[in-house]
Amino acid sequence: MARTKEQNERMTMATRKKIMEAGLVLFAQKGFALTSIKDIAEAAGISTGLIYRHFSSKEDPFNSLIANTIEELNKFIQILDSYDSPKQAIVEMTASLIGDIHFSNELSRYFLIVIRSMLEEEVLSQIDEFRKSILSLYDKTKDLIKEGQKRGEFKQGNPYKYTLLFFSIIQGMANMKLFMGDKYVAPELDDVLGFLLI
What proportion of the chain, given as a percentage, has pLDDT over 70? Predict the structure, then answer.
């Protein structure tokens, strides 16, 4: 019996998902240059030929992963835009980041792909949009810290330095989650924001 159009679409989506998941792991572990289509196919448990039915080159899944990373960043920007109180906005974003890092390796791998990409000249242009998004998130966070300081919600100090410290902590958590695996223990909200909260 022939497959229905819906069955074919589900199979196509399932295969693309396998390819993307394998690409996410491999690009995070090995970087773009050292990851081949064959590596992705093997990790996904499919043939190299089947990958080429879905993607014309390894750049295609890589670009899709960068687009997913930008979507993730935009999610955090939306969180920051959802609250009138700078403190509440920062607390909610931090809680979301802690949860995403603790319960899944996906966000940690997105971060790692971008960091590796900054060292690989052949994909630098593909991460320009990511840079714009991360700078937007940094600027919004810095502005909220500055406003929160005016309102007495945050400790006084250089908002730019606090923003860099905050994202350094988040990046460190993401890296440690991948490094430690099941032994990783997520810090409490107060641990992450102790430098900032009054």
Answer: 99
